[in-house]
Design brief:
By secondary structure, the chain is of the alpha/beta class. It folds into three domains: 18-233, Rossmann fold (3-Layer(aba) Sandwich), CATH 3.40.50; 243-326, Ubiquitin-like (UB roll), CATH 3.10.20.600; 331-420, NADH-ubiquinone oxidoreductase 51kDa subunit, iron-sulphur binding domain (de novo design (two linked rop proteins), Up-down Bundle). It contains 16 helices and nine strands. The chain starts with 22 loop residues before the first helix and ends in an 11-residue tail after the last helix. The chain binds flavin mononucleotide and iron/sulfur cluster.
Length: 431
């Protein structure tokens, strides 16, 4: 009989242990045994099939199946193949990758090694956002430890497999988290996303076949190789297996990171785990997956946190960065903050995005100042409609979705500003 272990915090269970961040501490907890198993006992294709069977979805925002993505790497090629570990984590409300970099750097490296074996990649670039100076230092130390111990370099774990890891520090631009903007930046150019196709598996870093995965995605891999695809599928929902690390911020009494199975109810995360809003306040709205995902109103928090359920409510899991807003929140102010961010971060290549993000911000600011007109709400939605699905990358969609969500659920806030020609809320934060 198959016994499914009930441990559901496999990613974070040892993160409180300082030694876990070091090579001896990580190895004392069984670290690098999954990489040994993959490299010495499994064919690359077997590893890909195992990850495919596990149903692991990428944790960087889009939820693309990791095993399927690996299978796109050309098996027969005379070009060098690369991996990229996306450690840019620039989505506001998301801070899960940072804790993995700080507390479990060898788990990331082990996931990378297994993915490299599976895809035949000879080198991995870890692209770390510029602001993550301390996590980058920690990762660099772990990389040096791994080289010294023969876990990286010419003969990984005494085998004939070679793999090198290079850490690259970004300079703090949101768009460098988008995988092709990242590749451009890695190559020393402006971080402007590329037109696709060709996709990175055909033409990636320095024109070579490349697979890009998120930090957390790599961290699930050793556990899947160690315990099997069935074990992984025993956690989470049918379509969205495994756990993820939800980051909860905003108006809750216990903000922080919570590793929970996908499919956990948003209400449970907000109220049970994060303690809900401070006493005397109630929840007004919750962004479920980082700032670019549409908001849900308090009445819709009974939703399982998995894409198949969130999509029914016109939102998505994104990076699992949950931002809670209580009843003191002015949703027009929220629109001002969000649109300002996207206006500032657009790379400017596409007219719809460059101009559209500016328009959204101008309109939101005008309504907040009390100078808005009733038609402005239609104009906001019209601009959003012209940005969605029209551009080189999904940034423009990510800029339009939150505005659409705010108008879908909190139109009354916008209308009140227009009707009273001023913001009816106390100024909870400066714009
Ligand atoms: C505007 C934009 C910003 C993104 N930022 C990040 C990021 O900071 N970190 C990340 O892992 N993925 C980010 N992504 C998603 C990546 O393009 C890519 O899908 C991801 O790194 C693939 O990894 P995964 O399949 O393991 O999720 C972003 C996408 C867009 C459109
Ligand atoms: S959608 Fe925006 S961020 Fe993406 S390429 Fe176009 S202008 Fe740049």
């Amino acid at each position: 009989m198959l016994t499914v272990p009930h441990v559901t915090n496999y990613l974070t269970e040892h993160l409180g242990d300082d030694a876990y961040g070091t090579l001896p501490g990580y190895r004392a907890r069984g670290g690098y045994e999954a990489a040994r198993k993959a490299i010495t006992q499994m064919e690359p294709q077997q590893v890909i099939e195992t990850v495919k069977d596990s149903g692991l979805q990428g944790r960087g925002g889009a939820g693309f199946l990791a095993g399927l993505k690996w299978s796109f790497m050309p098996a027969e090629t005379d070009k060098p193949k690369y991996l990229v570990c996306n450690a840019d984590e620039s989505e506001p409300g998301s801070f899960k990758d940072r804790i993995l970099m700080e507390r479990a750097p060898h788990k990331i490296l082990e996931g990378i090694l297994i993915a490299a074996w599976a895809t035949g990649a000879e080198k991995t670039f870890i692209y770390v956002r510029g602001e993550y100076a301390a996590p980058a230092d920690i990762l660099e130390r772990a990389i040096a430890e791994a080289y010294d111990a023969g876990l990286l370099g010419a003969n990984v774990l005494g085998s004939r497999f070679r793999h090198n890891v290079v850490l690259h520090r970004g300079a703090g631009a949101y768009i460098c988290g988008e995988e092709t903007g990242l590749l451009e930046s890695l190559e020393g150019k402006k971080g402007q996303p590329r037109k696709k196709p060709p996709f990175p598996a055909q033409y990636g870093a320095f024109g070579m076949p490349t697979t890009v995965n998120n930090v957390e995605t790599f961290c699930h891999v050793p556990h899947i190789v160690e315990r099997g695809a069935d074990w992984f599928r025993g956690i989470g929902t049918d379509k969205s297996p495994g756990t993820t690390i939800f980051g909860v911020s905003g108006h809750v009494v216990r903000p922080g990171l919570y590793e929970l199975p996908l499919g956990t109810s948003l209400a449970d995360i907000v109220f049970e785990h994060a303690g809900g809003p401070p006493e005397g306040r109630s929840v007004k709205g919750v962004i479920p997956g980082g700032m670019s995902m549409p908001i849900l109103p308090a009445a819709q928090l009974d939703v399982p946190m998995a894409n198949e359920f969130l999509r029914e409510r016109k939102t998505m899991l994104g990076t699992g960065g949950i931002i809670v807003m209580d009843d003191t929140t002015c949703m027009v102010r929220v629109a001002c903050v969000i649109t300002y961010f996207f206006r500032d971060e657009s790379c400017g290549q596409c007219t719809q995005c460059r101009e559209g993000t500016g328009w959204l911000n101008k309109l939101a600011m005008r309504i907040e100042r009390g100078a808005g007109a009733a038609e402005d709400l239609d104009v906001l939605l019209d601009v959003c409609g012209k940005m969605e699905g029209q551009t080189i990358c999904a940034f423009a969609d990510a800029a339009a979705w939150p505005v659409q969500g705010l108008l879908r659920h909190f139109r009354a806030d916008f209308q009140a500003h227009i009707a009273h020609a001023k913001c009816p809320f106390p100024e909870s934060f400066e714009l």
